[in-house]
Design brief:
Helices cover about 45% and strands about 10% of the residues. It has a single domain, classed as 3-Layer(aba) Sandwich (Beta-lactamase). Strand 1 and strand 2 form a beta hairpin. A five-stranded antiparallel sheet has the order 2-1-7-6-5. Strands 3-4 form a two-stranded antiparallel ribbon. The chain binds 6-diazenyl-5-OXO-L-norleucine (DON). The site of 6-diazenyl-5-OXO-L-norleucine (DON) has 12 residues, from loops.
């Protein structure tokens, strides 16, 4: 590394800060009110050092970054075989909100798209999500009530997906309740520091680097990071993994995480999104970090 870590991270934000392209996620009215210029970056190592720069104390809803953590909790509770019966591990090649179900079984292609995440959510209860996510972060996470209400009012697409999943026997719980619980899961508030530590817990084989708590078994983290690598960036996953090479997950509030097995967790926040629903400046920061610090896993 060329300079002390915080200086280097600040320099990365400066270099990537100029791009004003991309759009806020307008399909969730409350997210369209966000300050589009917020920009933050955090790094947490598996031995517990954390560095955060920019708008690092600004909280935002976790959105789809919740998906790998909910998947981890479902795997820990039910085991791999039972979860695989309900949701696959293949990239869909479609947008995150498409009804990408396997022909014949009705299984969602993977747990990173909405269909898969609704299925995973139905396997765990709301309390498990809140407690589990808080253990991943190392502090109690709160709900953003405004985002929750706003998204639930406009969640017809997820309702349609949940009803289809029920018709295939993939989801057995009440479809409306599953959408409500999943929306609550997506509305938990985090900062980049929280997200970097959550990703570092995955990178550290399931043990939180600061609290020392074992949140999920090691084999669960391997499964989760592998699916993040192949499916975490939706229909941009191949582009992402070839250029950046880090298992990752994005969210429509503008968050983006990366987990480097055995090394560190990374997180960025910048609300303007590209056409895949991934943060424009977040992707640029990761490209730069991967290049400068040799983080590409291949
Ligand atoms: O279900 C939804 O559409 C949102 N709660 C989450 C989508 C999301 O974050 C997609 N990611 N970039």
């Amino acid at each position: 590394m060329r300079s002390p870590i915080p200086d280097y991270l600040t320099e990365v934000l400066d270099v990537c800060g100029g791009d004003g392209s991309g759009e806020l996620a307008a399909y969730i009215p409350e997210l369209a009110q966000a300050d589009p210029d917020r920009f933050a970056l955090a790094l947490a190592t598996v031995d517990g050092a954390t560095y955060a720069v920019g708008d690092a104390d600004v909280a935002f809803s976790i959105q789809s970054i919740s998906k790998p953590f909910a998947y981890a909790l479902a795997l820990a509770e039910h085991g791999l075989d039972a979860v695989l019966e309900k949701v696959g591990v293949e990239p869909s090649g479609d947008a995150f909100n498409e009804l990408s179900l396997e022909i014949g079984t009705g299984r969602p292609f993977n747990p990173m798209i909405n269909a898969g995440a609704l299925t995973v959510h139905a396997l765990i209860d709301d309390e498990t999500v809140r407690r589990g996510f808080s253990a991943f972060a190392g502090r109690d996470l709160e709900l953003d009530e405004e985002v929750f209400t706003s998204e639930l009012e406009t969640a017809d697409r997820n309702r349609a997906i949940a009803f289809m999943l029920r018709s295939h026997g993939i989801v057995e719980k009440d479809a409306q309740e599953v959408v409500e619980g999943y929306t609550r899961q997506c509305s938990l508030l985090v900062t980049v520091r929280d997200l970097a530590l959550m990703a570092a817990t995955l990178a550290n084989g399931g043990v939180h680097p600061v609290s020392g708590e074992r949140v999920v078994p090691r084999e669960v983290t391997r499964q989760v990071m592998a699916v993040m690598a192949t499916c975490g960036m939706y229909d941009a996953a191949g582009d992402w993994f070839t250029s950046v090479g880090i298992p990752a997950k994005s969210g429509v509030a503008g968050g983006l995480i990366g987990a480097l097995p055995g090394q560190a967790g990374l997180a960025t926040f910048s609300p303007r999104l590209d056409r895949h629903g991934n943060s424009v400046r977040g992707v640029q920061v990761f490209e730069r970090l991967s290049h400068d610090m040799g983080m590409h896993l291949m």
